[in-house]
Specification:
alpha/beta; Rossmann fold; three-stranded mixed β-sheet; 17 helices; 12 strands; globular; disordered C terminus; 5-3_exonuclease_C_sf; 5'-3' exonuclease activity
Length: 425
């Protein structure tokens, strides 16, 4: 495992490499971060997170995360002054490919720019901000084959595509070419340079008004100026995979770790094996469902609370009399990869997904109210409508995803906790 971090503010160069190419690079993002704390941006160093401790006055604020990576046996890379973590990811992937070619690299990031790194041995684990019906786990595996099937041109040309269409988040405009038109141009010509050469040769006639502007330079800029701008755009969006973009110490640790790996013996027919997709079946959705942080936390808390509830019910509060009761929490998942505590199949009807609510699932100070709602519904009623407003935002969002997938939902409290044991949050 390799984690790549941006250069700490204390070591950051006055101007990033890409800012030297375009002074407005990332200005939109910077303005948003500097805006008043209105829920859209941060007011500065004091806003270190809504629930975290205040940012330390000195030192590296990311040091706790780096320490955790190192404790897991991973390596931390730090972008060199003037470069970004994206470049460090590209350099790490390139180092693995050069020194240990049989290895598969999985790049986990929420940045779509990482698609340019895709190759037969490199895949992108796209991290979404939150789950959705099409991506219930909040992450998605994207391979080079997936990319080509979706866009029609090789992943290495993704910076060329961005150069043509621009990127609002980076405050960089394109050539006025739409995403579909740019994809068709790159599918036909393969790269931005080839597109510009085709424009110079007059081959873009019939490709639409935007391509026509590339051809004749109509508007406020000449064709040469527009070509220079597009080449600059590509340099902005292309990740630099050179080892110099990472602090030497971290890269030396990575290279030493790679050198310590044993070479893989290639069996007979290895050439044929390499033609097969190396990522097929790597991340089954059902197995990953309960590894999502929301559900992993729920599982740990649920097991702990059930155990404490059984202890209190069986021994009057003495932990020496704990025994495992007949009910135990389970881990189920729908075929769509949505986690549920239990699934009740209904032949010919809608199946029911059951969630046993624990204190981490409800809003602060709402657990006693949740217990009251469940106890009042024990006479045969369903507590689900009354429990829904008490759920945290993340849990409520997940329950709604399950409902949108076509399941009925039932919210309850683990049976052992109804025996008079009300745990504290």
């Amino acid at each position: 495992m390799v984690a790549v971090f941006d250069t700490p503010a204390a070591k950051r160069a006055p101007q990033q490499q890409r800012e030297q190419l375009a002074a407005g690079y990332l200005q939109r993002r910077k303005r948003r971060r500097q805006s008043p704390a209105d829920g859209q941006g941060s007011a500065g160093p004091a806003a270190f997170g809504s629930t975290a401790a205040p940012r330390p006055a000195g030192g590296d604020p990311l040091r706790p995360f780096k320490r955790e990576v190192e404790q897991l046996g991973g390596i931390c890379l730090e972008a060199a002054a003037g470069w970004e973590a994206d470049d460090g990811l590209a350099a790490a992937a390139a180092a693995v490919g050069q020194q240990h070619p049989p290895a598969c690299v999985l790049v986990a990031s929420g940045d779509a720019d990482m698609q340019q790194l895709l190759a037969p041995q490199v895949a992108w684990l796209q991290l979404h901000n939150q789950p959705s019906p099409s991506c219930p786990l909040g992450l998605e595996l994207v391979t080079a084959a997936d990319f080509v099937q979706r866009l029609g041109f090789p992943p290495a040309a993704y910076p060329d595509w961005l150069a043509l269409v621009g990127k609002r988040e980076a405050s960089i405009g394109g050539a006025g070419v739409g995403g579909k038109a740019a994809a068709k141009l790159l599918a036909r010509y393969g790269s931005l340079e080839a597109v510009l050469q085709a424009a110079e040769a007059g081959e873009l006639k019939g490709w639409g008004p935007a391509a026509q502007r590339l051809l004749d330079g109509t508007g406020s800029s000449t064709r040469e100026e527009r070509a220079a701008q597009l080449r600059r755009n590509r340099r902005l969006f292309a990740a630099n995979a050179d080892a110099s973009v990472v602090q030497p110490r971290g890269m030396q640790q990575l290279e030493a770790r790679l050198q310590s790996l044993q070479p893989v013996q290639q069996p007979a027919g290895a050439a044929e094996q390499q033609q097969r997709p190396v990522w097929s079946g790597l991340l089954p959705a059902a197995q990953l469902a309960w590894q999502h942080p929301l559900h992993a936390r729920r599982w740990r808390h649920l097991q702990q609370l059930v155990y404490e509830g059984q202890c209190q019910a069986g021994s009057g509060g003495s932990s020496s009399g704990c025994s495992r009761g007949p009910w135990q929490p389970r881990q189920s998942a729908t075929p769509e990869g949505l986690a549920a505590d239990e699934l009740w199949e209904q032949p010919g009807g809608r199946s029911t997904a059951v969630f046993y609510i624990c204190p981490c699932d409800v809003a602060p100070a709402s657990w006693e109210r949740a217990m009251q709602v469940v106890q009042q519904a024990q006479q045969g009623g369903d507590a689900t409508p009354s429990l829904m407003p008490l759920l945290t935002g993340g849990m409520r969002h997940h329950v709604k995803l399950v409902q949108r997938a076509g399941y009925s939902v039932r919210l309850a409290v683990p049976p052992p906790l109804l025996n008079g044991a009300i745990p504290q949050r």
